[in-house]
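Incident log entry.

Two folding requests arrived from the same account within the same minute. Monitoring flagged them as a possible duplicate submission, but the sequences differ. Recording both here for audit purposes.

Request one:
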Amino acid sequence: MRCFIHVAEVADITDIFCKSLSGEDIVYLADPDGVIAIPRNDAATVLEDAKKFQAADEKKLAAAKNGTANREWVEKLLAEKGYEIIDGVCPH
């Protein structure tokens, strides 16, 4: 069966639409980045995991915006690879 899905713009995970297009026990989820198919029995678990991921991602974004993000792992990795870290070159 061929399915055509128009992907509308969504604001957040609560705007994702779910619809079984094939008549099977499959839930199709779509957002501007693409479409995935999930067995209906797994849909609730996937949704809860997605909400947790979104919440964590929003915290990271807020920390990046307000300058409190912990970027020590980046500096450690760059140092391990032998890159020189020079602070204060670019004005903020």
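Request two (distinct sequence, not a duplicate):
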Amino acid sequence: MERARITVFDTTLRDGEQSPGCSMNVHEKLRMAHQLDRLGVDVIEAGFPIASEGDFQAVKGIGAAVRRPIIAGLARACVNYGLYYLHQKVAVGPGGVFGREFDIVAERPG
């Protein structure tokens, strides 16, 4: 009998930051991402890159520095302002952060 595998998807760096007094800068998010990696988290939702330049830099920096877990970014299902932005600006996309979801939702604008 094959054992089930549980995938841990952590949203601390995006959703957890919504709590009053829990805002983090890029350096703090990077430190937290390394700790989540050490804990064995499988997927880290690093932020909402289109929300601000700080979130954009955090997701990009975490994606470059933290190699074992999958690094994800929240994106609106609107190609011009969501998935396409992440794919082009943060340099993530099919087979990386989004995989199949990117293929289903995104069409190149223009």
